[in-house]
Fold each of these.
Amino acid sequence: MNKSNIILIGFMGVGKGTIARSLVKNSSMFAIDTDDLIESMENQKIKKIFEVNGEAYFRTLEKKCALWLENNIKENTIISTGGGFYKQDNIKQIGKIIYLQSSFDGIINRIKNSENAQKKLKKRPLLQNIEEAKKLFDIRVSEYEAIADITVNVENQNIIDITNEILKNI
Ligand SMILES: Nc1ncnc2c1ncn2[C@@H]1O[C@H](COP(=O)(O)OP(=O)(O)O)[C@@H](O)[C@H]1O
Ligand SMILES: O=C(O)C1=C[C@@H](OP(=O)(O)O)[C@@H](O)[C@H](O)C1
C-alpha cells in the first residue's frame, strides 16, 4: 500500500461515508469527510446551508475545503466526499481517486429499504426530486468514470467485500 491519500467519489448515497468508516477499521488510515468539514466550517447542516445560502454558495465552500485538503492533508488519509466534490479542479492533487459505482436504482432502493430511510433522503437537498436526481446522475456518471483512478462496483456488494477490494488495489 502506498501512502498517498485516498478520495472516495460517487453519487449521493452510494456509500462513500460508510466505506470510509470501514476502511478506517481495517487499515492504519484515518478518515475525514468533506461534508463534515463544511458543516463544521459553517456550524450548519448541509440541508440548512442549501436552504439559506443556496447551492452556489455551498460549492464555494467545497472549493475552500479542496484547497485546504491539498495544502494540509498530505498522506495516509481517506477522504470521503459529497457527490459533487469531484468537480474541484485540484482533486487530482489531493490523492488517488476511487469511484464507487452503482446504478441509480441500486442507490435509491438501498436507501429506501434502510432504517431511517426518510431521514437519509431528507438530509440530501439534491435527492428531493427523484426525476431531477436521475438527470444529475446521468450527467455525472461519465464524469466520475473519467476522473477515477480506480472504479469499484458497489451495487449489491457487502461493505467488507468493497473494503477488501479497495485495500487490495491501493
Ligand atoms: N455496501 C453497502 N451495503 C449496505 N448498505 C450500504 C452500503 N453502502 C452504503 N450503505 C447504506 O447506504 C446509505 C448511504 O450511505 P452513505 O455512506 O451515507 O453514502 P454517501 O456518503 O455516499 O452519501 C447508508 O444508510 C448506508 O448504511
Ligand atoms: O451530489 C451532490 O452534489 C451533493 C451530495 C451531498 O453529499 P453525499 O454524496 O454524501 O450525499 C452533499 O455534498 C450535498 O448535498 C451535495
Amino acid sequence: MSALKVDGLSVRYGAAGALADVSFEIPSNTALAVLGPNGAGKSTLARAVSGLVRKSSGTVTFGGQDLSTVSPAKIRRAGIVHLPEGRGVFRGLTVLENLRMGLAADPGRRAAGLERAFELFPVLGERRKQLAGTLSGGEQQMLSLARALMVEPKLVIADEMSLGLAPKLVDLIFESLGRARSAGVSVLLIEQFAGRALEFADQCLILQRGSVSWSGPADTAGEELLHRYLGEATAA
Ligand SMILES: Nc1ncnc2c1ncn2[C@@H]1O[C@H](COP(=O)(O)OP(=O)(O)OP(=O)(O)O)[C@@H](O)[C@H]1O
C-alpha cells in the first residue's frame, strides 16, 4: 500500500511557477530520493507535502487520508515529520530541552522517546546539557533527526540532511534513517548530490525546473542518466 500519494501537484510563488504537475507515490517502508539541481523545486516539494506552502493544484494523500488542504499541525499529527534544510534546532536551548520539545504534546511518551534518542545517538546523551547552538554541525543534524524520530513518525521528509557533513557523519545519519525505515518508517529524501541518496533509496525522482524529468527504481538511475539530468556538479 502507498503511504504517500502526490498527484498533479503545482506550486506558485506569486507569478513564478515553482512546481508543475508533480506526481509520485511512496509505498510503505520505502524511501524515495528526490534529486535535482539548485532551484529545481526540491525544498518546495517537501514544504508542499508538509503543508508549509500553499498548493495551487494537486492532491496529497497519506495512508488514504486526504491532506491536500489541511494545516501543517494536522499533517504532523498524521505522522509526517519534516526535517528542513538547515538544522531546525533551537540554538539557545540544551540538547535535552530540544528533545523534550519533540514530545511536548505527548509527555507520557517522553521518557521512552529520550531513551531511544540517546540509544540512537549516544553523543547526544553525553552532551545533553550543552546548548544546541554550540554543537558541531553534524551533532546538530543528529539532534534534529533524533527529535524527529522520537515522535515515531510514519514518514520522514529529510531535506539535504548530509549538506556540509563529513563522510563519517553522513554514514551515521543514513544508518539511523535506515534503521527507521526497517522499523516501518517511509522516507522522502531530498539531496542535491546523487550518490549516497541513490544507494539508500528504493525509488528516485529527478526534478528539473519544477517538473519531473525522470523517475524509476533507484538502482536503474545509471551514471549516464544522472549526468544527462543533473550535470557534472550534482551527479556525484
Ligand atoms: N518563498 C519563495 N518566494 C519566491 N520564490 C521562491 C521561494 N522559495 C523558493 N522560491 C523559488 O522557487 C524555485 C524552487 O526553489 P526550491 O528551494 O524549492 O529549490 P531546490 O531544488 O530545493 O533548490 P536548492 O537545491 O538550491 O535548495 C527557485 O527558483 C526559488 O528561487
